[in-house]
Design brief:
Elements lengths: L1 E6 L4 H13 L3 E4 L11 H13 L5 E6 L3 H7 L7 E3 L3 H9 L5 E5 L5 H13 L6 H16 L4
Parallel strand pairs: 1-2, 1-3, 3-5, 4-5
The structure holds D-ribose.
D-ribose binds next to α3.
């Protein structure tokens, strides 16, 4: 599995924590930035960078951190093929994979602490999509994208 990871200034420190998890798990990753927590940046830029890496197929999954995880999820979900789930607890992390086949995880550095974020990422990386009835629903989400003319 290859993972693209990014954050805004609010999520920078948590991104660095989550890169440690990826290293521990032996997962190859690309960090699209931001590269420090001091300079204020705009979260859609980093959300889009991660989302495009996943949507293109170059990377299997994406992880994005901002203050709440909300802004980056909204932005990432504008890219066709992206199913970004903002999960600030472990149950949602597991279910976002099993039911929603989420290909991007977002977390909020101002909502949860690093230990919870680390656990969320581990669970999210290990959980598999259950398919079955959930596939039909994922297909309907793709159909909404088609009707809305979402970006490539
Ligand atoms: C930045 O101040 C903050 O708005 C951002 O990190 C995020 O929480 C947006 O959803």
């Amino acid at each position: 599995m290859r993972v693209a990871i990014g954050a805004d200034h609010a999520g920078y420190a948590m991104k660095e924590e989550l890169k440690d998890v990826l290293r521990e798990e032996g997962i190859e990753f690309l960090d699209v930035g931001t590269m420090n927590g001091d300079e204020s940046v705009d979260y859609p830029d980093f959300a889009e960078a991660v989302a495009r890496k996943v949507a293109s197929g170059e990377f299997d999954r994406g992880v994005i951190v901002c203050g709440t995880g909300i802004g980056v999820a909204i932005a990432a979900n504008k890219v066709r093929g992206i199913r970004a789930a903002n999960c600030n607890d472990t149950v949602c992390a597991r279910l976002s994979r099993e039911h929603n086949d989420a290909n991007v995880l977002t977390v909020g550095s101002r909502i949860i602490g690093p230990a919870v974020a680390r656990e969320i990422l581990k669970i999210w990386l290990r959980a598999d999509f259950e398919g079955g009835r959930h596939s039909r629903r994922i297909n309907k989400i793709s159909e909404i994208e088609e009707r809305s003319g979402a970006n490539e």
